[in-house]
Amino acid sequence: MVVSSCIGAVDISFSELLSIISYHTRISDHQGFTSQQASVFFNLRLPRVLLGSLIGAALGVSGAAIQGLFRNPLAEPGLIGISSGATLFAVIMIVLEINIFKNLTGTLSFYALSIAAFIGAGITTMIVYRIAMKNGKTVITTLLLAGLAINALANSFIGLMTYMATDAQLRNITFWNLGSLGGASWQTVSALLPFVLIPIVVLPFFAKSLNALALGEAQALHMGVNVKVVKRMIIILATMAVGASVAMAGIIGFIGLIIPHIIRMTFTADHRLVIPGSALLGGALLTGADLIARTIVAPAELPIGILTAMIGVPVFIYIIISEKNKNNL
Amino acid sequence: MIRVEELTYKVGNRQLVDGLSFEAHSGEMLAILGANGAGKSTLMKLLCREMRPSSGKIYIKEKELMNYRLEDLAKTRAVLSQHNTLSVSFVVDELVMMGRYPHFDQKPASNDFAVVRRVMQDTGISHLSGRDYNTLSGGEQQRVQLARVIAQVYETPNACLLLDEPTNGLDIQFQQQIMVLARKLADSGYCVICILHDINYASRFADRILMLKNGKKVAEGMPIEVINCENIHETFSIKVKLMACEDYNCPLVIPATSVS
Questions:
Q1: Are the C-beta atoms of residues B143 and B174 closer than 8 Å to each other?
Q2: Residue B42 belongs to what H/E stretch?
Q3: A269 with B89: Cβ contact below 8 A
Q4: Model confidence at A244, in pLDDT bands (50, 70, 90)?
Q5: Which residue among A89, A236, A296, B19 is least crowded, i.e. fewest CB within 10 A of its CB?
Q6: pTM of the model
């Protein structure tokens, strides 16, 4: 995070960063930086780093929770259609210019967009869950096919909306399909904050139930887990995080897949560690990826969604192969 | 103890469990025998509260099953299901610790660790400590699952254990280990209800046997009372021979040679 806030079109050295911080916290009166550097730091770098870590944390945490819920390490918000559901609802909000939305400005409009995306994510999760669950288990092929169908359906509607959209709206829509942290500002950060903080704080309380669910729904019930309530809460919390991050930064794929997987491989599958761990690692990794995305082709900027997909797909294939080998045993 | 009164479960017009009444006491092992489709698994699901009966009542320790809070029920009875697959892999110790989940909120207390350690000793899986569950053999996995189930009610005197075909798919050595364990649990005061396929295992290890056909009771009683050619023919539609055996108070059941 520190590195990422220093590197960019306007360079800020580490000592200058420290100087900015200490000056503004009135620790030191010495101004060892230019005002341009300070303004870049406060208005561009810092919100972007914060947005990146929030979204990374949100995606990591919701990925871990959704994989626990579906009892499948391949479930990922993007793959099973949750992100496109969220996108669709956000796009509908923009294009159809829902009345309430039109009257809202500034931070409030971001809130409205987040809530719309959250509802879209929630509905798609429910549909995919219904389709893919059989006797308390997900069949992986059904799950992925359901995701494929939902993605196709959502994309066709997004296409329809694109067709109906005006030029200004169009620019907004393209932004969602690529996934980028370019929209970072204090407004987006503050709009995202509650939608991410609530799941990150609350989901760890469901870690025990998620562990029990790994044994099966019936088994979890026998252990005194109120499976119905737990499932509903996890869907709400996870889609809240996914919906809000999609509303702010578009679809950034594979973070929700890779992060929990790394934690499970290196430490343990215990959700009491996987959930907070995914939040931390997700935040760190996405900030790092964003640093690469915006410096690698400088002065232009690579949409971060492209970068995460490039890293994510090989990992995805690796997981498919290892799952296949495990099931053959 | 468990008391079942006039238990009925209907799906459409079919009665999967039909007016069944029986009791199982503390310190006793009740084996349930029956052909495939006799309603054993349905009965088990009703006893676990996975499904609601169409009519009739189930009492655990004189309290109606439906009146229990889920957490309290989890401390009073534990269930070993037939199919146990893990979606993500856990270390054996963590899995056994899951049995303690109803007993702590976020962090296990030192007592929970102690229980896990003792249960792992009792079930003879201490040497599997630290192993990855998915790398274990079927018999080892089953014993780990049983350890988890025992850990759940370890400190509850006269709690109920419901075991759904615990020896399924295991070789004869593991079958015997599991049954000896179940027998010990009954002797130490638990009320054990166990669905079994093998008639000889049932008569060897259980105190009483309940035989089911089409959701109805065929016979109920001590092995010596109910294991006879008529009841077995009624329950399984097969002809068998009985063979007296030394040191064994119930005759052995072997298939009759001629194919009926």
A1: yes
A2: helix B40-48
A3: yes
A4: confident
A5: A296
A6: 0.81
Which tens digit of pLDDT belongs to each residue from B115-156? 999 999 988 899 999 999 988 988 889 999 999 999 999 988
Q: Which residues of A touch B99 (CB under 8 A)?
A: 223
- Write out pLDDT tens, residues A175-184: 666 777 777 7
**A216/B84 CB distance under 8 A:** yes
Q: What is the ipTM of this complex?
A: 0.87
C-alpha span between B66 and B8 (Å, rounded): 15
Terminal Cα distance for chain A, rounded: 43
Going by their DSSP bridges, the two strands B55-60 and B63-64 should be labelled as antiparallel
Q: Across residues B101-117, what is the average pLDDT?
A: 91
- Contact in structure between A114 and A191 (CB atoms under 8 Å): yes
pLDDT of residue B82: 84
Enumerate the residues of chain A whose CB falls inside 8 A of the CB of residue B48: 218, 221-222
Strand partners, B34: B212
Inter-chain CB proximity A223 and B74 less than 8 Å: yes
- Look up residue B60 and give its amino acid: I
Structure tokens that stand for A258 in this block: 């890779």
The answer to whether A215 contacts B86, with C-beta atoms less than 8 Å apart, is yes
Counting residues of chain A whose pLDDT is more than 90, the rounded percentage is: 7
> Is B66 exposed, middle or buried (CB count within 10 Å of its CB: 0-12, 13-18, 19+)?
exposed
**C-beta of residue A145 within 8 angstroms of C-beta of residue A76:** no
Point out the residue among B79, B87, B91 whose CB comes nearest to the CB of A71.
B87
